[in-house]
Amino acid sequence: MPAPNAISADKLKRLIGLPSGPLILDVRAQHDGQLLPASVAWPEGHGPSPHLPEGRGVVVACGDGRALSQSIAALLRQRSVAAEVLEGGVSAWAAEGLPLIPSSLLPPRDALGRTLWVTRARPKVDRIACPWLIRRFVDPRAVILFVAPSEVEGVAERHDAAPFDIEGVFFSHRGDLCSFDVMLAEFGLSVPALDRLAVIVRGADTARLDLAPEAAGLLAVSLGLSRIHADDLDQLQAGMLVYDAFYRWARDATDETHNWPTNKPGAA
Questions:
Q1: Is the dihedral of CA 17, 205, 177, 151 positive or negative?
Q2: Exposure of 134 in the CB half-sphere (CA atoms within 13 A)
Q3: pLDDT one digit per residue (tens) for the chain, 268 residues
Q4: Phi, psi at residue 6, to the nearest 5°?
Q5: Beta strand pairing call for 101-102 and 34-35
Q6: Which pTM does this prediction carry?
Q7: What is the DSSP string of the chain?
């Protein structure tokens, strides 16, 4: 029988990636180099409490879902936080073959526990898709820096940030693959909805609109947003909603069609 205030790995995997999904607190003291997707580290509940977004629930995950996560979740509920425990902990998550993020691929965290990422200014497709992936599936508090192309690597070195989508860095185009493809592969995030979205992003980003019917639409929206927004962070904020919608379509709605209503009065 499931413990009260517990959530199964199967249910949690459906919530990860959604803007309304819970904040996941990984409270393990040691994580063996593998992190839950979209989680925030809070070892044993020590140190400053992470910012808890108003109106969102919290899932607390330890190694086995027992005393450590149970106690921290109970204390959070004392603060009127809707806190649940990952049933079976990270061990149960891993046993189901669900994705875990290799911590070795993440840049060092800043004083607030956030990862920093830097890329070229004036984004279009890949440089919006990648930050969306990072914030929804890797580090929900990630800081994204947009700078002049010539300064990306210098800024990365100065701030211990991870550069992406420029030539000669780890997270960038490889052969026919775009940076979004590479991040999916390296972070082990190959799930059907993201794989479907990756083809659309690749088609829009590399002028191969034949790869997916939706690629032309994504390109059009991306170019439109880049002209609406003079500020790159404003454009990223708007683009997050676009990719949220594409992801939900890729996950839940690919078989749905829409046509002129047929339920007219008197129709057979």
A1: negative
A2: 28
A3: 556 799 999 999 999 999 999 999 999 998 889 999 999 999 999 988 888 878 889 999 999 999 999 999 999 999 999 999 999 999 999 999 999 999 999 999 998 889 999 999 999 999 999 999 999 999 999 999 999 999 999 999 999 999 999 999 999 999 999 999 999 999 999 899 999 999 999 999 999 999 999 999 999 999 999 999 999 999 999 999 999 999 999 999 999 998 887 666 655 5
A4: -120, 150
A5: antiparallel
A6: 0.94
A7: -PPTTEE-HHHHHHHTTSTTSPEEEE--S--TTEE-TTEEE-GGG-SSPPP--TT--EEEE-SSSSHHHHHHHHHHHHTT--EEEETTHHHHHHHTT---EEGGGSPPB-TTS-BEEEEESS--SHHHHHHHHIIIII-TT-EEEEE-GGGHHHHHHHHTPEEBSSTTSSBS-BTTB-HHHHHHHHTT---HHHHHHHHHHHHHHTT-GGG-TTHHHHHHHHHHHHHH-SSHHHHHHHHHHHHHHHHHIIIIITT----S----TT--
Bridge partners of 85? 6, 60
Tell me which amino acid residue 22 is: P
- Two tokens at 232? 């790159």
Cβ atoms of 114 and 88 within 8 Å: the answer is no
Q: Please, what is the Cα angle at 60 between 56 and 64, to 5 degrees? A: 155
